[in-house]
Amino acid sequence: MGDPATSTDARGVHPLRHGPLLHGDGSATFRVWAPHARNIEVVLDGRSVPLTADGDGWHRARLPVTGTGRYAYRLDGGPPRPDPASLHQPDSVHEASALLDRSQIAWPSSEARWQAAPLSSAVIYELHVGTFTAPGTFAAAIEHLGALAALGVTHVEVMPVGGFNGPHGWGYDGVCWYAVHEPYGGPAGFAAFVAACHANGLGVILDVVYNHFGPSGSYHAEFGPYLTDRHRTPWGPAINLDGQGADAVRAFIVDNACMWLADFHVDGLRLDAVHALHDTSAPHILAELSATVDHLAERLRRPLALIAESDLQDPLTVQPRTAGGMGMTAQWLDDLHHALHVTVTGEQDGYYRDYTGLPDVAKAWTDGFVYDGRWSVHRQREVGAPLPEQVSGRQLVACIQNHDQIGNRAHGERLSTLVDPPRVRLAIALLCLAPTVPMLFMGEEYGETNPFLFFSSHPEPALAKAVRSGRRDEFAAFAAFDQAQVPDPQDLGTFARSTLDRTPVDTAAGQARHALWTDLLQLRRTEPALATGDRTLTRSLLATQSQMAVLRDDPAGDAPVIVVANAGAEDVTVTLDVDSDWEPRWSSAAPAYGGSGSPATVERRDSVLLCLIPAWTVGVLTSANP
Question: Which of 72, 173, 263, 474 could form a disulfide with 214 if both were Cys (CB 3.0 to 4.6 A apart)?
């Protein structure tokens, strides 16, 4: 077969080591890795045919396909099971799989020329297909892509679409990693969505979950050692990355990533909770994945990105493999989110107790990681290590809201319902003016107020009860509410309440919020000092609990800016020790954004600059004598 990263099969698609292999004569080789089974039959369109053992736990048989192409595997006389590497689950994750010819996916000719914008200039928009529109499908989502491009978004990040149990869910309980959730539109619908994103100039980042399988519909353990008790995760046994049989499991992950990138034309992957990928091997699975994807990008002649979610604050995640790192293109920066959230809400529950507000916002701007060896009260240990200067801020993806930070609140409140508009504007400004890559969560662009709740739709009564109880127990220690107040994840109304309303889009407040995002994203593109992710050009001038001033220089040294912020209820005058004269360039309090119209004002007195900053306002100053 050759190197999967640098080759294609006879049909021009990425070669997969798991799953059926289709042939041009109408036959298919059914392949399955099942070292735990002695006798395996494929049940193809109602007839059972034994597979032949082929060594190393693999079994196969080449058969003509004359019917619907529905198939399942029977292990040692047990019940039929869907293929662990199924490309299509038309009915549910518990039913028979269906053959899918990836070479027959229809793509417009323009796809051959497509190149996504690099992450160094990215603006990411995270969405959940099921709640982004009322129909909850890829087809319905396509209608809104033009508006995202006009806003200044460059990439759409789609929450997991792999097949999962029940019609509704976040997607992180996926069990059919190679299939696309059928209620969203299945594989054809996803391909059409990706093509439409590209037609609107938007790259696609797909959220993938390689750290666990969902609680229902995962039959992997019946086939082989996909899981191991040698390591534990919050979801139970870990994915087997370093034990007996791990080679086939690692191939299952790496090939899956390459399939999305090569055959579904996705431009990047967001890797969920990589700290739960327990691997003592050399190379680590992340390094193996990044090396493979780099080779794939060379073959496809287009950039491909890997964005890791990690709570380790480990610089090796984004450092190159040549320096002993994992080679990820970027990683999520929860530190900046947490610092901004504390700044505008004052919340100190849970992990928020570790953050001081604006001082940590400034540190995230200059240092990347806030926790770089610092003692964590919440974790009761030192966390993280310093991020090398050569790691660009554009390798760190930050937000003020995402699916986790909203949905993991008991009531799924968005920031727009937690604090008043001036504080929201301050948070948006301090996100967009940072050297990091900004990410919006769906609806933020107009100030959506509907919650984004945790929801599921497990049809099994026992599992539904367990999920319901577990969600309530999760918040039992919080004094703000009792367990009876926690929305039932299994209630269809919980899912329905999480769907975007979009009514605010045409209101004055919605248009003002949209204008704020649009102008800030344009400012990032047009001001050289804001267009760079070089953190060595970012210097903190002032950082107190309620005031912040950060100098951001441009690479040429000709057009620096100073970002000033007042996170307090009173107007304040701050003293800045800077050379030359400065003048106001932009203010979050502008009337176009729903503000009072009071901008930051500056006055030079002797050798210092006096800057008056209105309450809950961010201002941008530019040099008056360039």
Answer: 173
